[in-house]
Amino acid sequence: MICEICTRTDRQTDTVMAILRILTDACYYHIRQLRCIRPYLDSNTACTTATFNVHSKLDYCNSLYYNLPKSQITRLQQIQNSLARTVVKAPKCCHITPILRSLHWLKVTERIEYKLLLLSYKVLTTTQPPYLHNLISLLNLLAALAPHLTLPSLDHQHHPRYA
Q1: Residue 149's pLDDT is what?
Q2: Residue 117, SS3 per DSSP
Q3: Phi, psi at residue 35, to the nearest 5°?
Q4: Are 45 and 59 in contact, with CB atoms under 8 Å apart?
Q5: Which of 81, 111, 123, 156 has the fewest CB atoms nearer than 10 Å to its CB?
Q6: How far is CA 82 from CA 52, 88, 131, 146, in A?
Q7: Model's pTM, two decimal places?
Q8: Which pairs with CB-CB distance under 8 Å and at least 24 residues apart come from 82-89?
């Protein structure tokens, strides 16, 4: 039984890694193409093209990227960094954080978390799509958050407002 679970997990990991290899190749292909035409584009068009061609690929399957090994997240971040430098025509030695801020782009880990949280919020508030709403219940969410929540003190003697 345990060997079967390990084999299944290994196959799933291998599939995700294969997807990431294909994604990396496709993204770098589009970044190289963008570099070729970048001198002829204004910054708005370059940003739109980058978002359309590469960011859409990075955002696809965000739920698969959650809890990936740091080495794989680093590969995805390098793709985004290369794309950002191409869009703003920055040299490779420039620090990336100000460039990402100027483009209003989140880092890859932040982007993955944001997309998952947004999807969860939409499922909880609109009950759409139904297949996800059935998987996520508010009680499960509260149970997961319970260890991190603290209740305010109801002790009136030690509360500054009532002292």
Answers
A1: 53
A2: helix
A3: -60, -35
A4: no
A5: 156
A6: 15, 10, 37, 40
A7: 0.73
A8: 82/28, 82/31, 83/27, 83/31, 83/34, 83/50, 83/54, 83/55, 86/31, 86/34, 86/35, 86/38, 86/46, 86/50, 87/34, 87/38, 87/43, 87/46, 87/47, 87/50, 88/43, 89/38
Contact at 8 Å (CB) between 30 and 79? no
Name the range with the highest mean pLDDT among 62-66, 105-109, 129-133, 150-154.
105-109
- Return d(Cα 121, Cα 41) in angstroms, integer: 37
CA distance 24 to 37: 20
Question: Looking up tokens 């739109």, which residue turns up?
Answer: 48
Q: Can you list the alpha helix ranges (DSSP code H) found in 38-107?
A: 43-50, 56-59, 62-65, 70-88, 96-103
* Per-residue pLDDT tens over the stretch 66-90: 888 999 999 999 999 999 999 999 9
pLDDT at residue number 101: 95
